[in-house]
Design brief:
Largest sheet: 5 strands, mixed
Protein name: ABC transporter substrate-binding protein
CATH topology of the largest domain: D-Maltodextrin-Binding Protein, domain 2
Number of domains: 2
Strand order of the largest sheet: 11-10-12-9-13
Domain Solute-binding protein family 3/N-terminal: 55-284
Distance between the termini: 43 Å
Structural class: alpha/beta
Number of helices: 9
Signal peptide: 1-34
InterPro entries: Solute-binding_3/MltF_N
Keywords: Signal
Helix content: 25-40%
């Protein structure tokens, strides 16, 4: 099997077969929707201000496995999907996951095309000016390269100076690359040559095709691709910048924010949260480990 073909196949962690094409992990550039059936809204949940009655609609980008991605048939899967479904179940709601480019998630929330973002969205000060967050995972950023590593990149350090690095538009990894480029220049070194893309699968393919020397994004995503690549794609250095991921709702929707926090607390107390993290190999990302 060729490297390209093997890289386009990923394990669906809830099954024993290899069924996901990595090229589909990032989904489509336009909007799509996936909905799962759960109990109809009842009690207080029926009175929540929702885009669609009885449904918790979460804007999503399916480009960050194992957190959230899509099976070949378009079905959303991943730890964040399971967390969202579990929270919705506690609220007596169904779930829907319309898909957007990562950079379009917050604009879609602001346009009230969804109720919440549960899709690897880091909690950052500028985002907290717009939204309230229910923290549910820890994350960080990681650097990965092809196994050949022709530029001898060693992590998020000065070895990135002068190399071609790729990140995802609107993501923290992209900001880190821009910061490193400026730092390199200030030291009299060649700046990082930054390319930004909308899909993580495209960024991965750029590195594997030799069009980019390094890829910087979430540590979970880098580790996932490394496992699926049979040694062709390698994480280098240590993760940087521990940060929380949270479920984002508009500040004007305080009622929903409070309901989501209560639901998440119940998911944790029931043991379901720990089960989800174990299933997806994300025990280290337990929000209880936040420093």
């Amino acid at each position: 099997m060729s490297t390209t073909i093997s890289l386009r196949r990923a394990a669906y962690a809830g099954a024993a077969v290899i069924a996901l094409a990595l090229a589909g992990c990032g989904g489509q550039s336009g909007q799509s929707a996936a909905q799962d059936t759960q109990p109809a809204a009842q009690g207080a949940a029926a009175d929540l201000p929702l885009v669609k009655d009885g449904v918790l609609t979460s804007c999503a980008n399916f480009g960050t496995p194992p957190n959230i991605f899509a099976k070949e048939d378009g079905t959303p899967v991943g730890a964040e999907v399971d967390i969202a479904k579990s929270m919705a179940e506690e609220m007596g709601l169904e779930t829907a996951f319309p898909e957007y480019a990562f950079s379009g998630l917050i604009p879609a929330l602001q346009a009230k095309q969804c109720d919440v973002i549960i899709s690897s969205l880091y909690i950052k000060p500028e985002r907290e000016e717009i939204a309230d967050f229910v923290p549910y995972l820890l994350s960080g950023s990681g650097v990965a390269v092809s196994k050949e590593n022709p530029k001898n990149v060693t992590g998020y350090d000065d070895s990135l100076c002068g190399v071609r690095a790729v990140g995802i538009t609107g993501a923290t990894g992209a900001s880190l690359l821009e910061e490193k480029a400026a730092e390199c220049k200030s030291k009299g070194l060649e700046p990082v040559q930054v390319t930004l893309l909308d899909r993580s699968a495209d960024a991965l393919q750029q590195v594997m095709a030799g069009q980019s020397d390094a890829f910087l994004d979430t540590a979970e995503l880098m580790g996932y691709y490394e496992k699926q690549s049979n040694g062709e794609f390698v994480v280098v250095g240590e993760p940087v910048g521990q940060i929380k991921i949270g479920a984002a709702t508009l500040k004007e929707n305080a009622e929903l924010h409070e309901a989501l926090q209560e639901a998440f607390n119940k998911v944790v107390d029931s043991g379901r949260y720990a089960e989800i993290l174990k299933e997806w190999g994300l025990e280290a990302q337990n929000i209880a480990n936040a420093s």
